[in-house]
Amino acid sequence: MIKDIVRDEAVLSIKSEPATRADMQTVRDLLDTVEANSERCVGMAANMIGVHKTILVALIGDEYVAMINPVIVDRSKETYETEEGCLSLSGVRSVTRYKTIAVEYLDKKFKRRRGIFRDYEAEIIQHEIDHFSGIII
């Protein structure tokens, strides 16, 4: 189901809890919502639809991939400065991102995965993982 985007920074600053199989509807809602906003969105964390669980969706290649309980387990020493926007906020803000990250996560079938992501894909994932900690760019 397509959900409204949360814009209240007090709600967005609440830390997220690990997701379980009982949260699969949130995975479906995130995928529906990000696809409905695809002309202006490349990723979304669950708190952006009001659910404080560690679930994100990110545009990887040409499809949105759901990551449940993702953790960055390694990162490059190389970083870069960029500006990011967010559907939940107005304007853009400056951030520092790692060029390459390794992420362990569960896919939407709760199968354990590990991926290496670079450049823009890594940036999207880092942005959404920041949401889990209540970090607002």
UniProtKB/TrEMBL annotation:
Keyword Iron: yes
Protein name from the UniProt record: Peptide deformylase
GO molecular function terms listed in the Swiss-Prot or TrEMBL record: peptide deformylase activity
Entry keyword annotation includes Lipid metabolism: no
Entry-linked Pfam families: Pep_deformylase
Family per similarity comment: Belongs to the polypeptide deformylase family.
Keywords: Iron
PANTHER family named in the record: PEPTIDE DEFORMYLASE
Entries under InterPro entries matching the protein: Peptide_deformylase, Peptide_deformylase_sf
